[in-house]
Amino acid sequence: MTIDTGWSTERITRIPAIIASLERDKGMSVTWFQFDPNLIVTLGRQYRSCEEAIKELVANAWDADATIVEITLPQPMTTDPIIINDDGNGISPNHIQEHFMRVGYDRRQDRGETTPKGRQVRGSKGIGKFAGLQIAETMTVTTVHEHQQSCVVLNKDNLRSLVTIQVR
User: Fold this and answer.
1) Which residues in 87-108 are b (16+ Cβ under 10 Å) and which e?
2) Burial (CB count within 10 angstroms: exposed 0-12, middle 13-18, buried 19+), residue 142
3) Which segments of the chain have a pLDDT < 70?
4) What is the DSSP track for 108-136?
5) Which sequence spans correspond to the domains of the chain?
6) Which CATH architecture best describes the domain 38-167?
């Protein structure tokens, strides 16, 4: 059996036809992995402290070639948010759909070991984006790419039923 891991958008759109062909021509039954959206919360728990989670989110800014990262911490004993702003490359709406929302996506396979500015890429498992869920009930990622703003909202309570993507 050969497993081709070089999936492209064109190949993904052909999956239904490929499955029908396997079932019809080879008499095979096709089944899929499934996962509960709670897996996202579980993956976020790998960051055992607030500091580790913030470090991971700063590493994401590094991978986006940010030169400035600002971290705003809340006043003690408040429910104010932790805010991490950077001047990185941003994420296009298409990239959000094709890559950011894909759990386990390894950017190194598609774009190599270095960033456009020549930095060594830190991320490799495609789960660092969930670090914020270790330190907050709701994580909002707002990004601007080529003058297009997108916003992804992940809420722990809603993960069992729906992950909301708002693209503006």
Assistant:
1) ebbbbbbebbeebbeeeebebe
2) middle
3) 1-23, 25-35, 160-168
4) HHHH-SB-TT-PBP---SS-GGGTHHHH-
5) 38-167
6) 2-Layer Sandwich (3.30)
